[in-house]
Design brief:
Pathway: Cofactor biosynthesis; ubiquinone biosynthesis
CATH class of the largest domain: Alpha Beta
Structural class: alpha/beta
Pfam families: FAD_binding_3
Oligomer: single chain
Distance between the termini: 57 Å
Largest sheet: 8 strands, mixed
Number of helices: 12
Domain FAD-binding: 8-340
Family: Belongs to the UbiH/COQ6 family.
Strand content: 25-35%
Radius of gyration: 21 Å
Shape: globular
Cofactor: FAD
């Protein structure tokens, strides 16, 4: 007996932060939304599966407010009230604070697992969202009137629009024949959580080392999330260190927080930039890391994805109110046109920063230090950079 297809308006492949936020934004209209994720909920919500945090910009917090989730997430966040950027062996630094941000926090640090937990709860509670997990798309067909996906569990889903929010190695991007440009940074991010002797005072630190940028992101008063984007030639040596020895390495390279103790295991994530040649094809759009995987040096990857979700949801809602086809080519092209400038500018900025600070020349280090001091002294430029980091444009 042939299985009856499940009908929906929007099929979102990828139940992570970006796909989940899009689902939440779309539920303000009577649209039927199906979210498919390859991870079983109990695994996706396991703290030991993902040690990363998300740096939610001020602009992204406003987007999350529209989903109705931000009020319950806010008590579990730590505000970023200052950002200090420095480099080893030079005295120059760059300092951003709330005065540059109109008194608002520049962003908030939130555990990935906690964000997923809130999104999964929302998807289970809202009547017009169906979550199917664990499952992935086995085959995909689209034509001028609709699309159909077959899942690995045998379920057929018919849709008007499919969204690939399934990460850097996007299966949807590959299935739809969208080619992507890839650049490997020869770096791996080591992520862990630490407790430190000195309070961070809601400061985020980005410290550039010859081995790669080291970031401390504030969590609790005496705790931070650490992201060390380490050159691959040093990874084996670091992997061989005990927890205590690795903490000593952090202390030696960044002594400003006093004695450091690791309070979680270490996770490793290879760093690769991926940028597809286009973001849309017939009845299909890409967003999040499927549309732009960038280096974590500025903590902006997730925020780019949240802005993707906001733009697409607005376009879909406008078309739905007018009774138009939400998968039509005009809407898809408008989405790509409205997102491409933000994506390309942020990708180029992060890529340039990585390459600039990866060079270990002493004279270049001096120039970088002087450059940071110069930018620090020019308040209007510093404020423009702050607004950009907050997701409020230039």
């Amino acid at each position: 007996m042939t299985q009856k297809p499940l009908q929906c308006d929007v099929l979102i492949v990828g139940g992570g932060p970006v796909g989940g936020v899009l689902a939440g934004l779309l539920t303000t209209l009577p649209l039927r939304v199906v979210v498919v994720d390859f991870l079983a909920p109990e695994k996706a919500l396991d703290k030991n599966q993902d040690g990363r945090t998300t740096a939610v910009s001020w602009g992204s917090s406003l987007i999350m407010e529209k989903t109705g989730l931000w009020a319950q997430l806010l008590p579990h966040t730590t505000p970023i009230e200052e950002i200090r950027v420095s480099q080893a062996l030079t005295s120059g630094f760059l300092h951003f604070n709330q005065e540059d941000a109109d008194g608002h926090p520049m962003g908030f640090i939130l555990d990935n697992w906690r964000l997923r937990q809130a999104l999964y709860t929302m998807m289970e509670e809202r009547e017009n969202i169906t979550l199917i997990a664990p499952a992935s798309v086995k085959s995909l067909e689209c034509d001028a009137s609709q699309g159909q996906a077959e899942l690995t569990n045998g379920q057929l889903i018919q849709f008007r629009l499919i969204v690939g929010a399934d990460g850097r190695l996007s299966q949807i991007r590959e299935s739809m024949g969208i080619k992507a440009y890839t650049a490997r940074y020869d770096q791996t991010a080591i992520v862990t959580s630490v407790q430190h002797e000195q309070p961070h005072h809601c400061r985020a630190f980005e410290h550039f080392l010859p081995t790669g940028p080291l970031a401390f992101l504030p969590v609790k008063t005496h705790q931070s999330s650490v992201v060390w984007s380490l050159q691959n030639k040093w990874i084996s040596a670091m992997e061989s260190l005990s927890q205590e020895e690795f903490a000593q390495e952090l202390e030696r390279r960044f002594p400003y927080l006093g004695k450091i103790e690791l309070i979680s295991k270490r996770w490793h994530y290879p760093l690769v930039m991926t940028l597809p040649r286009r973001m849309t094809t017939e009845r299909c759009v890409l967003m999040g890391d499927a549309a732009h995987a960038i280096h974590p040096i500025a903590g902006q990857g997730a925020n780019l994805g949240f802005r993707d979700a906001e733009i697409l949801s607005g376009l879909v809602q406008n078309s739905a109110r007018l009774g138009l086809d939400i998968g039509e080519e005009t809407l898809l092209k408008r989405y790509q046109r409205q997102r491409v400038r933000d994506i390309v500018s942020m990708t180029c900025m992060t890529d340039s920063l990585v390459r600039l600070f990866s060079r270990s020349s002493q004279s270049l280090a001096f120039v970088r230090g002087q450059g940071m001091s110069w930018m620090n002294a020019i308040a209007p430029l510093r404020r423009r950079l702050t607004r950009h980091a907050m997701g409020l444009g230039l």
